[in-house]
Each structure stands twice: as C-alpha cells, then as structure tokens.
Amino acid sequence: MAELIYNEQGRLLFTEEMRKEYTILIPQMLPIHFTLLEKIFNNHGYKVKLLTSTGRKIIDEGLRNVHNDTCYPALLVIGQMMDALKSGEYDLNKTALMITQTGGGCRASNYINLLRKALKNNGMAHIPVVSLNLSNMEKNPGFKLSVDLLFDLIIAICYADTLMWIGNQVRPYENNKGDSDKLIDKWVDELMARGFSLPAFNKTIREILADFEKIPYTKSEKVKVGIVGEIYIKYAPLGNNCLEEFLRGEDVEVVVPGLLDFILFMCDHHIVDTQIYHVRYKKYIGSGALKLFLKKMQNTIIKNVEKTRFNPPAHFEETKKNVLPYVSPANKMGEGWLLTAEMVELVHSGVNNIVCAQPFGCLPNHIVGKGMIRKIRAVHPDANIVAIDYDPGATKVNQENRIKLMLSTAKTKLGK
C-alpha cells in the first residue's frame, strides 16, 4: 500500500506512487464518450476502469450512503462507486476514485465531498478521490490534466459527439438492424489505434461520415424525439432508465444534443461573468481561448455533415442567440440557459417532441427546464414537451406511460 499523504486541509492526496500502482474507477455517463476517455487516460499512464454496472442495487447502495433529498445523480454515481468497492473485484489498498467537479453553484459541486463522507462511513477513508475539473481545484501530485491529455480528451469528445449524432439519425432506418452500432464500435477501436491528431481531425470526420452513408437504409416518416435535461440524467442510461433504448423501441428517431455544447456553455459563462461583474480576468482569457478552439472544432464537424444527407448539429452561437428572448445568458446554475436553448433549438430544427429529463427537486432544471415549457409553447404552439422526474421512488412504468402519452400526440400529428 502506498504511503498516505494529506494536504494542510486534511485531504488525502493522490500521489505519483499511486499513479503507478492504483486503479482509478470512473462512473459511466455517455457510453461512446467514456469508452474513449477511459482508453485515453490509460494511454497517458493511468490505470482507469470504467464502471458500467446497472440495476436496483446501485440505487439501494446510493440510498445507504447519500440522503434521499440529495441530487439523484449524486446518489447514483456514489452508489455505483460504493457497489464496485464492495464487490470484492478490486484491491481497496490500490484503488482510487475519479469524479468530475464543476465548481459552480449547483449541488453537483458537492458530489466529491459526499463521496468522501460515504467512504469514511464505510471504513474506506484510505481510498483517494481525484477531482477532474478545468477550474484548477483540488490539485494532486499524481494527477495532472496536461495540455496533451486535455487536447486528446477534447478531440475524443468531438469524435464521440459525431458518432452519437449520426448514429441516432441512421439507426431507425437501417435495413440491417445493428449496422450502426457495429460501425460505432469499429470506429471507437479505429480512433484508439490512430490516436487523436489535430491535423487529421477533418479527414477522419469525413471518413466517419462516408462510412455511415454506406449503411443500407430505407427512409420513412418517423416521429423525432429530442432529449434534454440535467447532464447526467440526460445522457446516462443508469440515470434515465435507458430512455434512448425505450424510445427506439417505440419506433422513433432520437435526437440528443452533444456534450461539446455543454463544454462551450461552461466556457461561455466564465466570459459572461467577466463582462457583467468585471472579475476573474485570467479565467476570462483562458475560457475565451478554449471557446474559440472548441467552436472551430464544432464548425469543422458541421461543415462536413452539411455535405452529406445527414442533418448537422447547430452552431453554439446560433443556439445562444435563439434563447435570448427566453432567458438571460447570465443564468448559469446547473445547465443554465443551455437547457432552455436546446429545447428552442430542437423546435427550430423541426423536432417538436421533447423529453426534458430531470432529477426530482433539481432547482436549476425546474426553472430553466420545466419552468420554461409554458413560454416555449406560447411561442411555438406545436411544441410537444413532457418533463419527466427521476428519483429513487419514481417507477419506470409511470415514467414510460407519461412519455407514451406524449408520443401518442406526436404520432397523431404525424399522421395528419
């Protein structure tokens, strides 16, 4: 067991010695994205293991360690990690945990402290927790988000967004069921073999799109359903009870905005903070530079998709512009204005049917998600939006029945 070293505040540090010996467990959120991220971390000298466990046992473990009034994603993520630690599969003297931390006003900033409390209550306080963030919080000698690692992660997210976006457009219409999923798996392996070179990005995106265009398909009229909401519940099958799989079973085309928009949103609100309050000029400069780079990557994807038969994702600045009549760009708690913007953008692009997935009691989402539905409907009468709450006591049957009512309305409109 590596020597345990604490900082001046009493926080257990993840040391250089631990980096060489320890397995770092990370929770699942987006299957394509996190599969790539796991392999990238391993390529950079870390031993990372992605947790993919599901089932009621995760919720029960979370309830044993987190108060049931706490944010549902925290309960799931901590439950998944504690379940893994208790499984007997890992050497607890050579295991660490990694969790993202935004540093904002949302309860998500406290997940890391809730996780440490759970470890302490279970006699596992010797297990270090690593914070993955872009805000320079909680430094550890054994973990550094280097420039090379950061660029690899960003480029991987852009590739994963493209695979997810195009895969969702092809999957409902493919002649041979499973072709899209096989192609996604192929490209995940191919990307890891090639690496994440920035000069090759444009060419690789074109190759991905060309491969998807080769899949035999039969185009037909189907209901399109967008998914928005709190970031974990929106993306994670564990959080939304396999919402995408359920919708595909209802013979609809699923439309899910990419992760890149959320990262752009995080950069953008740092810029807006400085413009309004005249503070944090260093963060303003850094966020501005990163935002320009991310927009360039997004524009490359959009330009290439526009040359194909597929619908391109929206430009970030266009999405932001369209939300201005609804909510201020200074609204940054949780998913902030971006959640409203994604609903508006979906409606503008012809996707009138939307599931707004949110943790029960999530105040930011009840304001910028559920709270904005009435105003969006007033401007766009065809908008068919349903807000679905997810928490430990919510039943999958009740959630799916409410979605089926929304789909019934959508299919009736499509028939007309």
Core attributes:
416 residues; Rossmann fold; four-stranded parallel sheet
Can you put this structure into words, describing what you see?
The chain is of the alpha/beta class and 416 residues long. Among the domains are: 16-143, Rossmann fold; 223-258 and 314-416, Rossmann fold (3-Layer(aba) Sandwich). The chain is built from 17 helices and eight strands. Strands 2-1-3-4 form a four-stranded parallel β-sheet, sandwiched between helices. A four-stranded parallel β-sheet has the order 6-5-7-8, sandwiched between helices. Helix 6 packs parallel to helix 8 (201-213) and helix 11 packs antiparallel against helix 12 (281-306). The model has no long low-confidence stretch (mean pLDDT 93).
Total beta strand runs: 8
Uncertain runs:
none
Task: State the CATH class of the domain at 223-258 and 314-416.
Answer: Alpha Beta
Number of discrete helical segments: 17
Structural class: alpha/beta
- What is the CA-atom radius of gyration, in angstroms? 21 Å
